[in-house]
## 1
Amino acid sequence: MCNAIHRAPAVPTWHAMRKAQGANAFVKVLDPRANGSLQDAQNNISQFIYERAIVDVCTERNMHRVIRGLEYGILKTPEPFSVSLHYLIFEWAPCDLRSQIDLDERSHLAVVLRWLHHVATGLQQLHFSEIAHQDVKPANILVMENQTVKIGDMGRAHRHAVPMNHVKQERDPTYAAPELLYGGTVNSFDDRCAADMYAFGGLVFFLVTGTSLDAELTRELAGMHHWSVWTGTFEEAMPYVRRAFETVMLRAVASLDSSVTLRLALVMRQLCDPEPLHRGHPANRSGDGSRYGMQRFVSAFDLMAKGAEWRRDRMTVIGIWCHGGGTPGGHRSMPNMPGLRSLERSTRQVLTCQSRRPCGGPTLAWATLSS
């Protein structure tokens, strides 16, 4: 059974279910009847085969933060007008980051930072295998049923040293790097990784501010300096882009959660710097590792996510103790979560001290432990 999810001109995406097992999957189908010419059909088939080869590499190397390919093949339609339909089957994801799960404020930061850790890990896995994704954006980050995320859609991906036999698709300008928006060319795998890094930074910006980085740059750039009308070189436009970027970042930093402001602002600047030579982690730029390596950003987001998860769990447990019934002097054990044993002792001390105050005890305990 198949239901259409997204109908592109030549490559519609379907939701399929295997009746015997009840398992869901994505099915990507190449329909040559949707092409306007034989050359278009040949180009799309070449692109589809190229994508299939990249999906095979990702699956064989067990990239657990990249959507997994399950099966591929060719299906022939019945006579008398038989047509060969190429298809790819991928593991199922209920939604993407455009349709974010409705999270309460306390959970939102922890979940978003963990998602970003997963995406950074996926990019690191791809780049390590010399694959540039070239289309990192919310629509291509898939939220799995267990609330983890994976990178999907390899339709624009490029594998280093493996030539393309098809015309490349245009990039989505919403998350494209400035050097590409201003007409720059991609001459090396490092250039592709730099563009992936900027797109990932744009994803970070979107998830923590709710708006697109390139849209914010458009607001700040004077009309004559915008990439849509600029006739000079990227280097000549750089001073105007830099000024707009600094203004946008200052405004964004002011809206960040205070618990991660400094670290997250620094990471966003390193990922999104409009000048490729200044993009990336300083240690990588100085020669310690690949110039656009993701490993240090994987570690940074893992650390920020763990801190946000700990704060979320701490406040949840304290909220249950203070407002979930039972006496403040009770001796119920807290859940066995990392870092909460000492919190249990502190909570008992504070609640015991405040139990003599009929009003305000739990409130004071909450305020004391959340500071």
## 2
Amino acid sequence: MKKIPIVLIFVGFVLIFSCNKNNTGKIMFWFREPISDQMVSRGVTVVKYYVDNEFIGDQSPLLYFSSAPQCGTIDLVTITRELGNVVSRSSNVEITDQDGTVLLSERINFSADECYVLELRSLLTE
């Protein structure tokens, strides 16, 4: 009779630990007025975001903040990556203008259940 509870406990552990977890990680970029001014002076009218060469979204270069906004702020692009069962994954993130001129190109780490709010502090030189 004691074998039944042991078998049920074993089956329970197998089911719990074999479940596929679908982790996601998020990153959102923002910038201050000097970076906005620099983009506008370069003729940037649209800021486009790509992850691993996939277009994610765009925003106006005129949308700047004096301090870090909350992750998921409306009008800012929040990049979400599916991580599957892993807790972190790095991806290539590229920020361009409307013509495809690269403003930033970085390898960024996405972490499970985290949203990183990253300040864009400088642009690639022209």
## 3
Amino acid sequence: MNTKKQTFVVALATATDLSKQYSRAETSINRRPSIIQKLMLSILFISLCAFQASAQSSEDYNKVEFYGGFSHNRVQPNTETFTAFGSTLAPCSSEATEVLGENYQTSFCQRRGFNGFDTSITYNFNRYLGIKGNVTGHYKSDRFVDTFGPETVTLNTRDRVHNFLVGVQVKDNHKAARFKPFAHALFGAARYNFRGVNTSDNPDNNYTLRSNVTSFAMKLGGGIDVRVNRRIDIRLIGLDYNPVFTRDYDITGAPYSLTQQSKTAHNFTIGFGITFH
């Protein structure tokens, strides 16, 4: 019994001492936050900030954009040589003048301006990077009149160039951004179509020329958009280098065989339009 009483007294004294220590600790906690409390509050604050940043990264940039606008293309001739009447000629040579005519020859030797459209859709993976699909079309109609001795020949031409490209775009897509410069690198195919109606004083020289060729193409460049409102940006300018690696092709419809040996056309485009989000 004495041993049990002693054990009880020791336990009671220990409990009383712990109670006093707890009361002092509780009083201290009420006066100021403990280190653990500060740590927990810090972790909670950091978590809330991280959550807010995550929400901004997924909600505060435009995920999809559509663009449509006017485009002007400075198209370089793509003919290296051509074969006609069994002879291979450089298009800008004096020998070629006798075959092509002085006026029509200029279309093989000088850049020409094509007008058309530029349209694209971009899906943005994050605020700065997206994948872009781009379709452009540029068109040119011309009339060339040349004299070959007593014969006057008129050639009405229609040229069409369509690009079908895909690639990456880098741009600040934040919804609140005012000025949005961008750059892109696009790759795909260019489809070239030509039609020429040849009319002459000599009925035997009335015919229609046709050619079609699809070649690898690229588009490297960029521009700048300016925010109008939450849904619309104005593209002030877009500038691109648009090389087309033209393949050799035949021109049909002439009363003689006509084949073109091609070269890369180093084209340049400029345009403007509207971007929708």
